[in-house]
UniProtKB/TrEMBL annotation:
Gene Ontology cellular component terms for the protein in this record: cytoplasm
Keywords: Aminopeptidase, Hydrolase, Metal-binding, Metalloprotease, Protease, Zinc
Family affiliation: Belongs to the peptidase M18 family.
UniProt protein name: M18 family aminopeptidase
EC number: 3.4.11.-
GO annotation, biological process: proteolysis
Source organism: Marinobacterium halophilum
Amino acid sequence: MRSLKDFNQDLIRFLDASPTPFHAVTSMSKQLDAAGFTEVKETDTWVLQPGQGYYVCRNGSSIIAWRQPAVDAAVNLGWRLIGAHTDSPCLKVKPTPELHRQGYFQLGVEVYGGVLLNPWFDRDLSLAGRVSYRTDAGRMASVLIDFETAIATLPSLAIHLDRDANASRAINAQTYLPVVMGQTDEKPDFRALLKQYLEEQGVEQVETVLDYELCFYDTQGAAMVGLKQEFLASARLDNLLSCFIGLQALLDGGEAATGQVLVCNDHEEVGSLSAAGAQGPMLSQWLERILPDVDQRNRSLSRSMLISADNAHGVHPNFSDKHDGNHGPLLNAGPVIKINANQRYASNSETSALFRHLAEQVEVPVQSFVVRTDMACGSTIGPITAAELGVKTLDIGVPQFGMHSIRELAGSRDAHGLYKVLQQFLQTDQV
């Protein structure tokens, strides 16, 4: 089991290397490769060996990784699944984004997910994602790109021109958010600029850029902050933090008779309804390939459990009235069991009890979160996956501040604590 310091250093490297879901899945794939896992393609016939590790990707933005159990073990002991999501709220470049106003080159953006918009202003922004192009030979290809350096910004309007800004400025997503890329005398062609960039990066035979999925991100890297380095500050903690924790638990969990699975889906922030999302068929289709026999598959699921890991709202010292007085999770006080009577979270008394039992075994404290009764509750992939598969489920998360901001904050000890509990979960025969 890795030390807290080593764990957090690896976490920071992962966060910085993963500005988009595509990059996150690539980063996870590299770690799986290094650990001896084998990638299998959805287009191929799978020949799987018990005891071996495998992974499969869809759309380049969702991934399932697992250790293959023997069929009898899968049926009689079930699966231990950890679920998370790879996407985060952000600003995505529109298909025809070019704007030329007052001599400035700007790109129009769409808001992806429930973005906290104010913190996006006055940041050093870069651009990353996937670009699809046609080669000189007339074939289609795709490549991941990351400009890495600051190439854009979103300047605030000076308070002198809006004296009521601190009291009542509302952000119009259409008119306030076009990102400033630079100054020019002519309206640029964004696809032509991407073609030039690809060629400068050594991508050969690019005839024309056909399309792209690109999002802006803050170039400020992840860092430990606080007088005693109590906090981890970064973009995309929701929910790359859980992806990393689940991956490390799988990699360091060792062999077990039960099936060990990590599934990280894209598109959770916009409802999960996609081919690569949790409300799509990816996980069920994977399970059908692993256990084609319907009776065996259903028996296996009845002995299985999913832990849906997605960050929780820590109680903010300036806004403590936004929490139920008995359910305000503190940073660095342990992972949080998320509970909702209306099934916005999938936890129940049995799955919560098992988590508490496992946490006690590794001496990790546990907290609970229930939203105020007079407030609406968010949700996760937990209820979606539970409904799709019929598998018992627990919703948990690391507490954080600033959820859906361009820069979020979590406790520097909580991720490591959850990692220890999830290792125990992957080994347990009690479900």
